[in-house]
Amino acid sequence: MQAQDARKLAVARAALAYVPSGEVIGVGTGSTANFFIDLLKSERVSIEGAVASSQATAARLKAHGFDVLELNDVNGLSVYIDGADEFDPQLCLIKGGGAALTREKIVAAASQRFVCIVDDSKRVDRLGRFPLPIEVIPMARSYVARELVKLGGHPVYREGVVTDNGNCILDVWGLDIHDPVHLEARLDQLTGTVCNGLFARRRADIVLVASDAGVQCLQHPAEAVPRQS
Ligand code: 5RP
C-alpha cells in the first residue's frame, strides 16, 4: 500500500471511535471516505444505516450490506464522517474534489457533529492552494465564470463531469480566501451557482489528521472526547 493510502486508512480507522452504535450516520465521498466505509464492514460496526453524500458512496455502502436512507426520512444525524481537499487552522475546509460538494454540504448541515478525516497533505495555513470547486447550473456556466473572474478567480470548467444533481463544476484558481466565511456567503449570492466548496459557516467540528507520526485530533474547545453509545 502507498504511504498516502496507509495514512488515509489510519485516519479512517480513527474515525470509527466517533460512530455512535445503532444510529444512522452520514457518510461522505472520496478515497478516504471509501476506506472508512470498508472499515465499517470489516470491523463489523453496528449502525442502523447511513445517509450517503453521493451515488458512489450509496453504492459502496449498499454493496457492503448497509441500509442507505434518504436524508428526508431521518430526523437529523448525530455525526457525519467525510474527507476534504484542504483544511485550515480554524477547521474551515475546501471540499468538492470528487464533485459531491452540494450533497456533502447538505449532510454536514444536517449533522450535529462533522468529523473530517484527512492526511497531512491537506493541511494549509490559508485555504486556496487547491482550486475551489463550484457546482453550477449548466446554462449558467459561462455567466458564473465571468462573475468569478470579476472576483479575481480563474475558473476552469471540469470537462466531462456531471454531478449527481445533473450540474457542472467550475474549479476556481487564485481566489483570495483570507476570510472563508465571507467568501462562502459572497459566492452563494452568484445566480446560477448551486453550491461552493467552502465549508466555513458549517466547518468541521473535529479534524482527524494522519501523518507519519500517527493520527492527530484537532477540535474546537467545545468539542468533547469521542462519544460512544
Ligand atoms: C468529494 C470531496 C472529498 O472529500 C475530497 O475530494 C477528498 O477526497 P479524498 O479523500 O479522495 O482525498 O470533497 O467531493
Written account of the structure:
The strands form three sheets. A six-stranded mixed sheet has the order 2-1-3-6-12-13. The longest helix is centred in the N-terminal third of the chain and has 13 residues, at 3-15. Strand 4 and strand 5 form a beta hairpin. It is 27% helix and 26% strand. The protein contains six helices and 13 strands. The chain is an alpha/beta fold. The model has no long low-confidence stretch (mean pLDDT 96). It has helices at residues 3-15, 31-42, 55-63, 101-109, 141-150, 180-188, and strands at 24-27, 49-52, 77-82, 86-87, 93-94, 111-119, 132-136, 154-157, 168-173, 193-196, 198-199, 206-211, 214-219. The chain folds into two domains: 3-123 and 201-219, Rossmann fold (3-Layer(aba) Sandwich), CATH 3.40.50.1360; 132-195, ACT domain (Alpha-Beta Plaits, 2-Layer Sandwich). Ribulose-5-phosphate is lined by residues 28-32, 82-85, 95-101, 104.
Quick recap:
The chain is of the alpha/beta class and 229 residues long. It has helices spanning 3-15, 31-42, 55-63, 101-109, 141-150, 180-188; strands spanning 24-27, 49-52, 77-82, 86-87, 93-94, 111-119, 132-136, 154-157, 168-173, 193-196, 198-199, 206-211, 214-219.
